[in-house]
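Let's sit down with a protein and look at its sequence and fold side by side. Which protein we use is up to you, so please pick one and set it down. Label the sequence line and the structure token line clearly, so we can match residues to local backbone shapes. Go ahead whenever you are ready, and we will take it from there:

***
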Amino acid sequence: MYLCYDEAVKVGINAYRTLEYAESGRYAFQLAAKEFKKYLEDVNLPYSPGLAQQWTNERKEHWNDRKLKSFQKAMAVLADIMGHGHVTTSLKTKIERISAYAKLPNWSRTILDNYLSTLTCTCGTSYLIHIRNACSHFFLFLETSGISKPCQITHGIVKSFFIKYIHISSKVRVQCNNRISHLLMYMADQGLIPKTVGLVPNKFVVYDLIIIGQLPEPERNRFMRFFNAFEQDVPESKVEFDAAAKKLADIRKNRKYSTNIGKVDLQAARDFRVFMDANSLAYSNDLALEWIEFLRVRWSRVKYLAFRKVLLSINEILCTGTLSSSRFLAYKPKYSLCQWGHDLLSQYLREREREGCASSTLYMVRNSCLRFLVFLDNHGITSEKGITPVVIKNFQAQDRHSTVEGKNAYAIKIRGFLRFLAAKKLVPKTLEFAISTEMAPRTSIVTTLSDRQIDAIYTFRQNACSPIELRNAAIIMLGLRMGLRTSDISNLKLTDISWKDSSISLLQQKTGVHLKLPLPVDAGNSLYRYIYEGRPQSNSPNVFVHHRAPYRGLRMTFGKLLKAAAVTQHDSEPICGFHITRKTFASKLLTTGNPTATIAAALGHVGVSSIDGYLATNEDKMRLCAIGLKGIKYLGGFSL
């Protein structure tokens, strides 16, 4: 066994000599082989590659880095010889051992030397060697790809290198990519290559970079329509895009958005800008949306929506000069409408808007009528003259809703549309009666907050200390003590409050009727405390704002925050919506003996009929209304 081991050592020494390795390399091999042979004799075990690896691992804590690497190399050579009888891949020829830097052509070596000279004051010698090695391999790849001058370096070439080049580990890969990226940015600063070429090595850019010419034909055709722009329009459109992206960053900063939002803006604008430069395309919003949709399958939904919002924001800045939209719909319209139906519906919606309908009401009117008009279009009806009772009956038979109440609500809106058409003498006046009602009106007992729940609310108000708790307490007190609707609280302006008169004056969102109410002391104190202690600094005129940038007016339902404040250990009935505070307010006014006219005025109602539903909440007065059974004889059976 030892003879075989000794022969393998001799073969290794001859290989080092034949391949013209330095004397230090041969000496390190001999020393490692000698020490390992002594180890084998001490443990009385035959040679094996696993035992050699175990030996180096056990001693690496006692060896310096140079000795460890040379001994590991020696054991690899020895294992190669023991396994094959000669050296195969463990040692390289003299030509193979020439450094990548020494193989560089003059143009790339000059650039690399100039770049390294700018780093000598900030980087150590060993780190400069790492940078030179990484950049040299990149330049050699360019040479094998036929690149002979800097202006030939493209986004696609750089991407090919980073996709194909193999590294020992992901950590080494990132380090090499960063070193080459810095070199490319230096070349861009010198005007040798476009600036965005230096951004390609970024790990967030390179894998999502689309080179249209390298795509399969079906995918390539998606972008072919964007190559029709005039050559002079390409750089001009990119300059405008860059200016809009910078303006978006300034807007985010002025509105105090978080740094994470700013990073997403930067990433989306950067990635799309690299894509435009890589394919020599002019900017357009259609191109941005096509790029987003193409990459959608690779991204998470969060990234897709975030990047989409950034690019649509940039487009809005380009079109209007500012950013006013806070959200962009991420889905296509549910209904596409024919022209004749679109014109009639637009006229009807304008008329309802002049009548003072709230935006939420107009939204429901639009959706209801769209369902009906799309049905007509799908069944070959090309004008309002084709609307007949039979057609309406067929529509209602197939119109599905989750609840009967929902179907009735939609039917009422369609009936109003038919009434509008009849007023314009486009359909018979009686046609609206073809819309059936599938549920009779019903009256239910009004649900109000219990005394325990009200006590819990006041306890929450007393203990509130954080900004959001102060905001929630003020919102709940306005609903409980003043009966304001959610929409009116959300739209309450600072100018609507008169501290001098202790009152609130506003225009109701639902009805458009002006309302002025006295401000109770407890509600006023909660409101004052929120404004001065909890409300973030904001240019919004609204009293209640979001507590995250950009601190716009609050748009949310308040049912959850009411439920959190009014929860008790004894209540079994759930709280269904914030509107219960308005019902509780009206019920309290009724039980304290206020006339119905006063209650209706406090609620902002024009008539008093809406107060009838609250009568049942006054138990003491309802007991006085009970009718005795005297004189009514019980007969038994169904005839009583």
In short: The chain has a mean pLDDT of 85.
